[in-house]
Design goal:
2 copies of one chain form a homodimer.
Chain A (H helix, E strand, L loop, with lengths): L14 H16 L6 H8 L13 H24 L7 H17 L1 H8 L3 H4 L2 H21 L7 H22 L9 H16 L2
Helix pairs in contact in A: 1-2, 1-3, 3-4, 3-5, 3-7, 4-5, 4-7, 4-8, 4-9, 7-8, 8-9
The structure holds a DNA duplex (30 and 30 nucleotides).
DNA sequence: CTCGCCAAGTTAGTATCTCTAACATATGTT
DNA sequence: AACATATGTTAGAGATACTAACTTGGCGAG
């Protein structure tokens, strides 16, 4: 069954994927709260009732889209580590840089996941994806501290770093660093914090 | 003119304040995205058209409510400093504690201001209120570092601290510290970070 | 090959929401 | 006492999320 080359325009081919992509574009363009299912339908070229054959409701559409984004994010974090010597703070910094980049590049997704829509979006798969991301950080922190397992201290420092990078992402999104220099300052900030949290 | 003791029920007395309070309650109860003007009207006991005599639109209602909250926040930060010796990191920690407490206690307001509704809420008064808050932190950081003015270094370290506390607030709201101990751990984390960022 | 099933579309309709327009009332000033 | 104005009201337009009932067409069984 060749999904991609359907000729009929009555059946879309892969509407589910089409709607997720439309959702992504619209959330990035108008923000999480400006998004509407109707808009997504118009963009995908289907009637406003069509999505409900694929998603329970608006939230499930958003969750599906965010899950896709989280997976992209995870892959990017892994590739960001390539070529950097293991057990060095540079690896932690690289993860932080990728985290912030994601928050800025896929700002709508970031805000959807972390900006307090969480109540509505509550979904075990989202929670799991988040913990997986944190797990990557914890592993690098452990390596930096010379630990082979995730001890309480590793978890504690990892959480500190996550808090910092997470907050930095939000402040950058809100343009708070506009008067504080650009990318250079951001990069210095990331490695400076990593050093401070990992030392001792 | 005695605003508070109007007998007529046709004229509310102080509907503007009543709506702001209703907005506050509902945003805390249902979250920023679950809030509706209609609900606020029902809670305040007026028709759905009434708010538009006092506010341009829904966003202006939210902005007014958030501004009230920011002022409460500012006052609390100032009182949190009382009795703590000047120039000590304990003052910075106290501000951080109050920041996190506010994010948890007035969670709806916090998310409205910082969670990405900002596009819509863009308002110079909100921006100003935020910078005023940051100013309080910068002053304490300067005192800790023995500076009399806000130097670039002071601003840099203040920004680091803000990032951390800001991120910590979001993660706590999202329950990420549930598996990491409670208030004790939170307190230790705050002072630990303050030390690490202020030392050197 | 064709027949019927069922997945995946459609149109139509309901309930709700924001905001506007036109009208009503009460307050306090002259 | 009368009016001007601020502050309410009702009615309604246009958009939205979602449901119900109908339609289409691809695919497998005979």
């Amino acid at each position: 069954m060749n999904e991609a080359l359907k000729k009929s325009r009555y059946h879309h081919g892969d509407l589910r994927a089409g709607l997720i992509e439309a959702t992504r574009l619209l959330v990035e363009e108008k923000g999480p709260d400006g998004f509407s299912v109707s808009d997504a339908c118009r963009l995908a070229g289907v009637s406003t009732a069509a999505p409900y054959k694929h998603f329970k409701d608006k939230n499930e559409m958003l969750v599906a889209m965010v899950l896709e984004g989280m997976e992209r994010h995870r892959v990017r974090m892994m590739t960001a580590l390539e070529g950097i010597p293991e057990g060095t703070p540079a690896r932690v910094t690289a993860l932080g840089r990728e985290y912030v980049d994601f928050a800025l590049r896929e700002n709508g997704i970031f805000r959807l996941k972390f900006g307090g829509f969480t109540d509505r979006l509550e979904d075990p798969r989202l929670q799991a994806a988040g913990e997986q991301t944190f797990g990557i950080v914890l592993q690098e922190v452990a390596a930096c501290l010379g630990e082979t397992t995730v001890t309480a201290d590793v978890r504690r420092r990892g959480f500190m770093l996550w808090s910092f990078v997470h907050g930095l992402s939000f402040l950058l999104v809100d343009q708070k660093l506009s008067a504080m220099g650009g990318d250079v300052e951001r990069e210095a900030l990331l490695s400076d914090i990593a050093d401070r949290v990992l030392k001792d």
